[in-house]
Specification:
Layout lengths: L2 H10 L12 E2 L5 H18 L8 E8 L2 E7 L3 H14 L11 E5 L2 E5 L11 H21 L1
Parallel strand pairs: 1-2
Antiparallel strand pairs: 2-3, 4-5
Helix pairs in contact: 2-3
Length: 147
């Protein structure tokens, strides 16, 4: 994620992002709106919970993994976890680059969510990728049986 979007998140929700994330925000700029909405929901859940301020939640890692947002934190209530799950589900259909509606692709063995405009040449659907890997595995097995 670009530094300016990291600054926006940290300035809008300084308590939520008060810990330095070891690797920064490890996702694309297309998910900034999802992260802003999620951060707002977590903040609102905390304010309505009546919890002691010392228990304000904190993000510990924010990243893309297998074409989905993964948001990890401490001091999370069940309502906050529900909001996190909804945001992760939404990310699975949102282009990581521009935020448009997207689909999961595999490119150079990594899973991403891209819209048609940002889908790189040579990428595959997860189904086609699994089929090609199964074929390669069979060929490898056949070659090893002949030796």
């Amino acid at each position: 994620m670009k530094k300016e979007n990291e600054i926006i998140l940290k300035s809008c929700y300084p308590l939520l992002y008060r810990k330095e994330l070891p690797f920064g925000f490890e996702c694309g700029d297309g998910w900034i709106e999802i992260l802003l909405k999620l951060s707002e929901e977590i903040d609102l859940h905390f304010k309505s919970s009546g919890q002691d301020f010392s228990l304000y939640p904190v993000a510990t890692q924010v990243k893309s993994k297998f074409a989905m947002l993964n948001w990890y934190g401490e001091n999370l209530t069940n309502k906050m976890k529900e909001s996190i799950n909804k945001a992760c589900d939404l990310s699975a259909n949102t282009c990581e680059i521009c935020g448009a509606r997207g689909h999961t692709i595999v490119y150079k063995r990594w899973y991403y969510v891209y819209c048609n405009k940002h889908t790189p040449i040579g990428s595959q659907s997860p189904h086609d990728y699994k089929k090609s890997m199964a074929s390669k595995k069979k060929i490898f097995e056949i070659m090893n049986d002949k030796t």
